[in-house]
Amino acid sequence: MSGAAVCTNSGGRRFVFRAASLPDQLDLIVPELLQASYSFYIWPSAPVLAWFLWSQRNSICGKRILEIGSGTALPGILAAKCGAIVTLTDSCTLPKSLAHISHCCQVNGLTPGKDIEVVGLSWGLFLKDNFRIGPFDLIIGSDCFYDPAIFEEILVTIAYFLERDNARFLFTYQERSSDWTIEALLKKWNLKANLIDLLSIGEVHGINFAELMGDHSIHLLEIVRA
Ligand SMILES: C[S@@+](CC[C@H](N)C(=O)[O-])C[C@H]1O[C@@H](n2cnc3c(N)ncnc32)[C@H](O)[C@@H]1O
Prior knowledge:
The protein is α/β, with parallel strands linked by helices. It has helices at residues 45-55, 57-60, 74-81, 95-107, 151-165, 183-188, 198-205, 209-213, and strands at 6-7, 12-18, 25-31, 64-68, 85-90, 117-120, 138-142, 168-174, 191-196, 218-225. The chain has a single domain, classed as Rossmann fold (3-Layer(aba) Sandwich), CATH 3.40.50. The protein is globular, with a radius of gyration of 16 Å.
């Protein structure tokens, strides 16, 4: 099954999630602002994570999920549509990005504050409001590790939620340089990572992850406490 998205007249991209053998289908529209900054695009890692969550939709239903660095929030919106209790976040210094996330939710029939939460959460910053969100069963993120300068800030935030809530962190990572590594940071923050075999999962669920990734090298990993 192809997971490709198509452009709509309104400047959004339409994603149709289907099951190989079941009548399930979910249509999502994600508005993008292509002249704007990072958080207004759908990065190639986002559909990969969204399709993985779709393959796991029965098990995420009812789970409390936090998405970090949501951007246009395709994975988190999909999770909410599949029955998860979702909090979408992006940097608290980017109010326009947070407003755009709310817009993405509304376009898909989700009202922020009612069906889904949208809040500011900056990596490595522990503001009073951040302690009020959760607890969470699962933390998700797509293409957050795009700059080594912020790797530790992400992992400090993740370590906090994993310890507080006994959760796990599932994320897609786009390989941009073979020199980049989080190994030493995982050790420092008492975390460990496992690579998830996306291609095998795709075979079982009839999802063509290789086609979704195109020319990019994208991995799905899970981080838990060591
Ligand atoms: C490469 S984009 C990925 C966006 C989206 N997850 C996707 O895959 O399409 C990185 C995202 O991280 C957010 N971000 C960058 N620095 C951040 C920080 N210090 N705290 C929280 N979010 C941050 C950006 O605003 C942006 O939405």
